[in-house]
UniProtKB/TrEMBL annotation:
It comes from Knoellia flava. Residues 1-26 are annotated as: Disordered. The chain crosses the membrane at residues 34-55. Keywords: Membrane, Transmembrane, Transmembrane helix. This is PPIase cyclophilin-type domain-containing protein. Pfam families: Pro_isomerase (PF00160).
Length: 264
């Protein structure tokens, strides 16, 4: 083999090696480019997906079925606390008449309070109203039976056992145990001497309560009795005291109470 032939062979080997190296380099570059493209696509997809999630309308939690009646909003949760107040002097309300507005989730219920006939009950009511005692307070007991038609309210704990930290006795109870439609009377424990506190009932149909000591009548409903009627028409929840006495099916809460003295 001549020197020229050796040089030609060496040149062909070198060219082949270079071609192989170039092919390897091209494959490496192609792999890198593909990987970069895949990574870019993944990043873009993630960004687009994240943006889609960010822009997607927030899914609302499925609300519990509402049992409210027409004209009523869902009431707020009760604060769950009572109070420790001192019994006010009944002279605060003696011989005066007051207007109380119960703002509820179903509208306003307006009362006339008779400080002449039930000064202690009215003085207590005024104090509790001014102290925001009934803030977000549910009416926890409803009676829809014959001769027992009333809505009991006034316990901010929502349990029926809360009190303002004091008690007082019965005033102005009817001798025949009859409470006409539109009556506002104190609810109490079995103790007629100190059983009254912050709870009261709104009578929406003639009611007979045979307790010999009676219940203090301290006012009348002048506006909003139709609200009580509407709540009563929805009935009571099962599992109460009876088929006609229990928590109202249509929830109603006192949101706040305002009182003003009526001028003669």
């Amino acid at each position: 083999m001549t020197k020229k032939q050796e040089r030609d062979r060496a040149r062909r080997r070198w060219q082949k090696q270079q071609a192989t190296l170039a092919a390897r380099a091209e494959r490496r570059d192609r792999t890198k480019r593909v990987a970069a493209i895949v990574a870019t696509v993944a990043v873009v997809a993630a960004l687009v997906g994240g943006l889609a999630v960010a822009l997607k309308p927030e899914e609302k939690e499925e609300a519990a079925p509402s049992t409210t009646v027409a004209g009523c909003e869902q009431p707020p949760a009760p604060l769950g606390t009572a109070a420790k107040l001192e019994l006010p002097d009944k002279a605060t309300a003696k011989a005066t008449t007051w207007t109380a507005t119960l703002t509820t989730n179903c509208g306003d219920i307006v009362l006339d309070l008779d400080g002449a006939k039930a000064p202690q009950a009215v003085a207590s009511f005024i104090q509790l109203a001014k102290a925001d005692y009934w803030l977000n307070s549910p009416c926890q007991r409803l009676g829809v039976g014959e001769g027992f038609k009333l809505l009991q309210c006034g316990d901010p704990t929502g349990t029926g056992s809360g009190n303002p930290g004091y008690g007082f006795g019965v005033e102005n109870a009817p001798k025949d145990g009859t409470y006409p439609r539109g009556t506002v009377a104190m609810a109490r424990t079995q103790d007629p001497v100190k059983g009254n506190g912050g709870q009261f009932f709104l009578v929406n149909g003639e009611t007979t309560l045979p307790d010999p000591n009676g219940y203090t009548i301290f006012g009348t409903i002048t506006k909003g009795l139709d609200i009580v009627d509407k709540v009563a028409a929805a009935g009571v929840q099962p599992g109460g005291e009876s088929e006609t006495i229990g928590a109202p099916n249509a929830p109603i809460s006192i949101l706040r109470v305002a009182v003003t003295e009526k001028k003669a």
